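Q: What structure does this chain adopt?
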Amino acid sequence: MGHDQRGFESGGPSALDRREKLTCDSDAHSLCFARKLSSLAAQPTRNMRTLIYWIYKGFTKHVYIGSFLYAILVLHTLLKKPVRWKSIRLTSLDRRESVPLEVFVNALKLIEEADPRRFKRVTGHLKWIVIGDRKRLGSYSSVGRVCNLRLLSGFQSTERRLIAHLYASVIIHEATHGLLEAKRFAYTRCNASRIERICRAEHWRFLARFPELRHSIQRFLLVKKP
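A:
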């Protein structure tokens, strides 16, 4: 949740993203994604990578804090029933205002309609979407497979389409973290920058399907950046 180092940072595509000359060709995307994934696994075998992963998990505080926060989330759902959409449960921990969960459901529907391949990743690696008052726009917790999102308040009704596309890209970013977790790539100091590059590239590839909105989303993020 909020403790996790990995997450979506507000801002435009990195220099790496621009050099990649992203298109909407799904086969090219799959090949590029596979190459980046293989670069992470170039040295250790899968068994060694799994061993490193669990040693890292056992000796870092993140898994213990994540377990504690996940227990709070489960207790919260006893008091406030979450919204279920397909295999994903959505709930809010934000007490400041009534959170319109349909905004996030619309983001999930957008992914399902526009990008079935990445939608399969979302449903396969995310079980919860939790909305709250956070510093980052999005973050991922492996305990419970939770995608944490910051509530963007104060946007106009005319910006709802823009917001849906923005949240959809963040959800894809965090689901990619979930995929890499499932493949036992530990979020170590050595791997962190490469993992973030892969996740950023994935959410910008999704937004490349909507070229008319991409620059608007970048401007919106600059305005809403805390």
